[in-house]
Structures are given as structure tokens and as C-alpha cells.
From TrEMBL:
Keywords: Isomerase, RNA-binding. PANTHER family: PSEUDOURIDINE SYNTHASE, PSEUDOURIDINE SYNTHASE FAMILY PROTEIN-RELATED. It is an enzyme of class 5 (isomerase). Residues 2-133 form the Pseudouridine synthase RsuA/RluA-like domain. The lineage of its organism: Bacteria, Bacillati, Bacillota, Bacilli, Lactobacillales. This is Pseudouridine synthase. Pfam families: PseudoU_synth_2.
Amino acid sequence: MLNKPAGVVSATRDDKDKTVIDLINFPGRKEDLFPVGRLDKDTTGLLIITNDGKFAHNIISPKKHVSKTYEAIVTGKISEKEVKIFSQGMELANGNKLQPAQLDIISYSEKDDTSKVRVIIHEGKYHQVRRMFGAVSQRVLELDRVKIGLLELDDTLERGEYRELTEEELNLIK
């Protein structure tokens, strides 16, 4: 379990940017490690690093319907209209059809004209959460993945820190 910081890419190697694998001090063959799924360079939060392909497939396969939960700060005031659009699924400008997603409004800052929201998706298309908000004329300022399936990010981990999953945590996402 890695608490991915912003500015780091979800890749095993990159010629110009620091990768999530660069953050890991692994006693075995580091080249066997890979991230389970991806988070954008600017997205923070829960990322699982493994060397087990079957385990990774069980998490990222769309057929498994493993949910991914994000918290975001977005521009403007999110209303029940956007909540309904997300819940019905949507079609993006490029024609990609998205499954229904859950959008919960956490708070609104009148001072900054921003909303804090929680989004739960069951697929992981390219820049999906950012593009979903773009489709309803909102811009994502911060995006943090806090949960995969029933596995929650350990809130004692600072950005860039990681730890092994416990047996109990592994069972939450198998």
C-alpha cells in the first residue's frame, strides 16, 4: 500500500519523471514490482504495488467490478443535478460511455467557490474522474484515491510512504 504523492508517475520506469517504483525499498528484485492500475501524475492517494499478476488482474479487471473511491476538490458548487448525471452514467465528448458512478457532496466553500466531493467508480478509464467533471463543466483541482474495494488508505501513511498489506487487508480485495 503506497500513499502516492503528486508529481510521481504510476509506471515501472520513466526517463524524465520519478516513478512509484522509485519510492519503494524492496529487498527482492525491484524490477518485478509494478503498480496495480494507474493514478495520473497529479493524482494522490492509494496505490497498490505488487509482483503478483493474478492478484493485480483481480483488482483491475472491469469484470470484477472492484470500486475505486476518490475524494476531490472541484470548481463551483456541485448540485443534485450533477449527482443525478453521475448516477445515470454518462457519455463523454469522445463517445466513451461510462457506467453509473456515485457522487456524494461533502462540503462547499463559498469563499473559494469549490466543492469537496466523494466519487465511487467501477471502471478505470483514462483520466476518468477528471473527464467526468469536465463533462458537467467543472474542473478538478485536487484528486485523491482513498479506497479500492473495501481497502482504505492507511491514514497514518504520509505521502510517499508505503507498507505491506496485512492478511486481513489482502482478503478485503481478493
